[in-house]
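Q: Hi! First time doing this. I have a protein sequence and I read that you can turn it into a structure. Is that right? Here it is:
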Amino acid sequence: MFSYLTIFFMLNSFLFSLSEYQYSPIRVYDLRCNALKEPLGVDTPHPFLTWKLDNPTQERGVYQTAYQIVVSSSGEKVESLEGDLWDSGKMEDKRYQVVYIGKPLKKGQRVWWRVRIWDDKGRVSDFSEPSWWEMGLINEDNWEGKWIEPSENIYPRKLDENELFHFNPAIFFRKNFVVDKKVKKARLYISGLGYYIPYINGMRVGDNELDPGWTAYEKRIFYSVFDITNMIREGENVVGALVGSGWYNPLPLKMWRRINLREHLPVGIPKLRAQIELKFEDETGLVIPTDGRWKCQLSPIVKNNVYLGEEYDEKLEQEGWSSVGFDDSHWYSAQVSDKPG
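A: Yes, that's right. Below is the predicted 3D structure, encoded as structure tokens:
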């Protein structure tokens, strides 16, 4: 016969096993990838995933003891909890930051995910609402866009210090392209040296200022990714960018009267690198990269400098320069440039 103590332990073990299926009051929310909410252009092959916990019942002392992450290739699969990219299973861990270690991810791929947790009483929560992140270009091989710079006809390559002070304009770049199918998805991948502002069909893209951030340009340059699906239309389109000097083309201002920044930084004339990637409803695609077929011209910002600001000449304004129908026959072809480093 079983002793009372044996029966007690058997009953306790049975009740503990049932706790796996008891509902936890914990709610999992605010899912983030690399600390960002549903980001575009994630450029790390193994991003870190985080979440937060909420306890609407105000039950005291409840905390996470385990988690499960389900990562899927589509919204439909993550809804049905099919982790075709990664299913961590139940992981005994109190951390809220976990590195993705699932299947290799492709450029531009959208990845969907959900999380649930077990609390200190062994109760399991509901899965969170689905969230997602989208991969960037990941590596250099996926860049079709070349670095381009203004033609030598409008931007001299060799200027002495005095000439630099008097000739320091921002540059217009533009490119016409035709879309003859219904667009399902459109992305703009873009960077510039120095600062740049992109446009599609006369409309500014995003609200970023002072892009890209200052880095050692010969080693690393940041780029941004924008969802431009709603900005592309069937027929003729235009992509444009205004590129200024930023930290890549500083004037020869001597700091402390002796240190010239141009002698200690990678410097050059304004450059642009970009590509638009279109995916159509029929699953075909089109890429519009920066190359020698882009056009360029001086802008009405005749001088621009990170310390001295800008000088603007309204007489040089070219209305509609980033829109369809603008006559750019008097513009010059951009030149493909060497990499900054």
